[in-house]
Amino acid sequence: MPQRLFTASQVLPGPCGQRIPDGAVLVDDATITEIGTREAVERLAADDVVRQDFPGSTILPGLINCHVHLVFDPGQDPVAGVHDVSEADLLERMARHARQLLDAGVTTVRDLGDRDGLAIRLRDRVNAGELPGPRIVAAGPPITVPQGHCWFLGGEADGERELRDRVRRTAALGADLIKVMVSGGSITPNSPAMWASQFTPAELRTIVEEASAAGLPVAAHAHGTEAIAAAVDAGVTTIEHCTWLRDGGGGYDTRDDVAERMAGRGIHACVAWPPDWPGFLDRFGRERAALIIDRFRWMNRVGIPLIPGTDAGLGHSPFTEFAGALGLYEHVGFPRERIIEMATVVSAGALGLDGKTGRLATCHSADLLVVPGDPLTDLGVLGRQESLVVRGQTWKPAAASS
Ligand SMILES: [Zn+2]
Question: In the chain, which stretches have pLDDT less than 50?
Fold first, then answer.
């Protein structure tokens, strides 16, 4: 494949403060080989370079959605939707969701819970070039207690021996990380309450110990404050939802001691709110919504790194949209350039992909999103891709090809 040169009115390499007016990116196969001003990069390009110019547009790194479930169909009952469905049908559904993520400008996604390791299989097929899709970081079936949150995905384990065995089996499936349901959740009938811890602190330490023996990080689903505290002490890598829900569900805590430990250890929080976050806030009511927004600001003040994800697949969180979810952080008060950094550079770091993707830099994967105008003045343009390159391959969005 000849070299390809992409130029635009501005290039945002990813980190806050970096902006190249009249910039360009040079791509060789699947890798970025040069980035800089158009003039400088043009001089370095081969004579037969294939160029694509995007005047009036911005080139930035492909976006990273840190929390999805490819196996669930949005709007469907999650339990019924995966229970009696054949593996072939589920894989077909997941491949469709992977294409939709590309349509939304997402070039890397973390799947935090599938059935039978199907997201791992999809990942391998995407990696082999058999199917289009973003880079998939897959957790396999989440670990839970018998009849616990999301038990129907097949990750139940009871007691230390079974937990160790479950982690080993998930690693053997080829998982990139371990997902553990530290607290209950909202989608599983008759399972522990959202704020209740499903595991003892000792059991959590066992899971993290066994995962790190296999070289795997741990993502912890935790709504309750005690569940969050135990996950932090056990040494997990990320906390999902991180709701700080008080026992009984009647309010929210701000535990500075726990938050400071979390920040000190660089444990990321992914609150995983959907693109329709205003609808989410409405459902909570004004008073509770204000408390929730305050808690986001508090986590940020304490120094907890936040990463965006949408929990796509659940409720009404579609795979077709990601940019809308970033508006939540603007509502909370984050500057736009910081939000872009969170959805690219910071997320890549949290997923262990530093140096591979998440920024436009030499030797990084050619994961490029081209959007009209300037996302630094309007984040909404992130949802209107003009072009997407994933690992060097240009994606043809469904709307353009139909
Ligand atoms: Zn989830």
Answer: 400-402
